[in-house]
Amino acid sequence: MSRAFSTPAAPPAIAIAHFAARLSVETDVSDVHADLESGADMLVVDSRNEGAWRQGHLPGALHLPTADIAGRASALIPAGRRVVTYCWGPGCNGATRAALELAQLGFPVKEMIGGYEYWVREGFPVLTPDGLLRRPADGLTAPVGDEACGC
Questions:
Q1: What dihedral angle (degrees, nearest 10) is formed by the CA atoms of 16, 105, 70, 83?
Q2: For the chain, how big is the Rg over CA atoms in Å?
Q3: Is 46 buried (19+), middle (13-18) or exposed (0-12) by CB count in 10 A?
Q4: What is the pLDDT along the chain (151 residues), one digit of tens a residue?
Q5: Quick one: which of 57, 77, 84, 130 has the fewest CB in 10 Å?
Q6: Residues sharing a CB contact under 8 Å with residue 114, sequence separation 6 or more, in sequence order
Q7: pTM of the full predicted structure?
């Protein structure tokens, strides 16, 4: 007996709706990196606190802690601008809360799954007080030597 299918798979129509819904609200670090490199029209928002921001952040990101979104987002982000939120990593739901706040203000928004942790682990650059840093890709999270996994 299959453990993976001990609960039967959903009918295709339910699976399509589920996976399409997830992709409409989530993106990953590789796709965000590719979009930033290509100049895609979007804004990346770092929802962490000041100390975390100083430790390192995505180049070009806007620092807007979740607690400040309701009061400051409309002054900092043009109406209708596509936004991607991130926080520390998969163990943190700060980016989810930030995305919810932005959606409630009317912004088209997605959460970057994996957050700052996976951005760093995939070998993408971060800005720190010492300048731009880039660590080698972690072979458990990204192909070593390649920019993207092709998935």
A1: 60
A2: 17
A3: buried
A4: 899 999 999 999 999 999 999 999 999 999 999 999 999 999 999 999 999 999 999 999 999 999 999 999 999 999 999 999 999 999 999 999 999 999 999 999 999 999 999 999 999 999 999 999 999 999 898 887 655 667 7
A5: 130
A6: 28, 29, 89, 90, 121, 122, 141
A7: 0.92
The residues, ordered by sequence, that sit 6+ positions from 103 with a Cβ below 8 Å of its Cβ are: 109
Query: SS3 sequence, 50-119?
Result: HHHHHHCECCCCEECCHHHHHHHHHHHCCCCCCEEEECCCCCCCHHHHHHHHHHHCCCCEEEEECHHHHH
